[in-house]
Amino acid sequence: MRLQRLGLRNYRNYERLDLEPAPGLNVFLGSNGQGKTNLLESIALLALSSSPRARRESELVGPMTPACRVEAVVESGGRKRELQLDVSVESERSRRQILIDGVKRKAIELPGVLKVALFWPDDLGLVKGGPELRRRFLNQLLVQVEPGYAGALSSYGRVMEQRNHLLKRVWIGEEPADSLDVWDEELVRHGSLLADARSRAVEELAPLAAEYHGLIAGGEALEMRYLGPADDLRKAVQNSRPDDLRRGATSVGPHRDDLELRIDGRDARAFGSQGQQRTAVVSLKQAEAALIRRRSGEAPILLLDDVLSELDATRRAALFAAMDGAGQVVITSVDAESFPASMIAGASVLCIKSGFVQPCG
Asked: Shortest CA distance to 324 belongs to which of 339, 305, 306?
């Protein structure tokens, strides 16, 4: 997997960018707030079809016009693909258009064409943060490698929205209770697909993450377990209906699941030190890249955003080891001091300032 060209037009603080990344290690240096994260976000946007950090698509649009564009040429399996994503804002509403090889496509058709493993500072909260972070981790992985997952995730979100709206109407007597039946069935159908895919992915991730963690942490044992919805999701949804009606929200389903992480048998979130938690996160991200490679047959593009300054020498060394022979890597940093001199010598190194990418010096 290789990103051959990246083009940005009025994307966040980039008025215009035309970039041809090197096939190996690409290092982008710059102070905070200059556009390093925006650059990596644009690549992740094409891989996932949605930004992993923006709450609204309108945030992606720069100040020049009410529209932005991200386009790329990707080589995968000896085949070149052209990707384009446009976002336009009209009357405070955003609209996007996706093209793959010049043909309009749905958003759910974009993930998987470009595969990435993304690691940025927010990910350091994967262990100690809330379950939504761990669900996002699984979702970002699976939309790229599990056929049908992106569609099921999108459908599940729509079903949740409709069911929650209907719960409120039933509670106040505007709709009969049996009107929920069809939405319960849809919730179970799409929710079961998500839960099954997540469960299988965690089974694959667990031994990979444990191996990486053991190498970094001197033999500490990292365990992972998927905490998904009940085995009989249909029955659980039926039993939860009285409570759901009172709350006006769906309380059962994969939108409530979690990923349990244990270090030497103890809950990593509650009992792990900061160092242990960060080692677990590094191990998870390494396992993610390995699973994408195993499932797709080619290494994903590694996107590492300003994480070196957050890691000590041992964990940085583990990341550098993962980067060795990984394929194409795009990494950002405030300066080059965190990198071994030999690594910088063999890399493409560019500097970013106020949305402009240029040679350093």
From this structure: 339
Alpha helices in the chain (DSSP H): 36-48, 131-145, 149-171, 181-216, 233-247, 268-271, 274-296, 313-323, 341-345
Task: Give the list of residues 6+ apart from residue 209 with CB closer than 8 angstroms, or none.
Answer: 222, 224, 280, 283, 284, 286, 287
* Dihedral sign (CA 25, 31, 32, 36): negative
pLDDT in tens, 72-89: 999 998 899 999 999 999
* Per-residue pLDDT reduced to its tens digit, 142-178: 999 999 999 999 999 999 999 999 999 999 999 999 9
Distance (Å, whole) CA 248 – CA 164: 6
Q: Between the CA of residue 165 and those of 149, 155, 175, what are the distances in Å?
A: 24, 16, 11
Q: What are phi and psi of 55, to 5 degrees?
A: -80, -30
Q: Is the pLDDT of residue 308 over 90?
A: no
Tell me the mean pLDDT in the region 25-41. 95
Query: Beta 79-90 vs 329-333: how paired, if at all?
Result: unpaired
CA distance 290 to 310: 23
Q: Helix (H) and strand (E) counts for the chain?
A: 9, 15
Burial (CB count <10 Å: 0-12, 13-18, 19+), residue 242: exposed
Q: What is the pLDDT confidence band of residue 57, given thresholds at 50, 70 and 90?
A: very high
Residue whose tokens read 């049996």:
178
| CB distance 67 to 86 below 8 Å | yes
Which CATH architecture best describes the domain 121-297? Answer: Up-down Bundle (1.20)
Residue type, 125: G
**Domain residue spans of the chain:** 121-297
Cβ partners under 8 Å of residue 75, min gap 6 = 1, 2, 4, 81
- Per-residue pLDDT tens digits for 196-252: 999 999 999 999 999 999 988 888 999 999 998 878 999 999 999 999 999 999 999
pLDDT at residue 92 in the model: 77
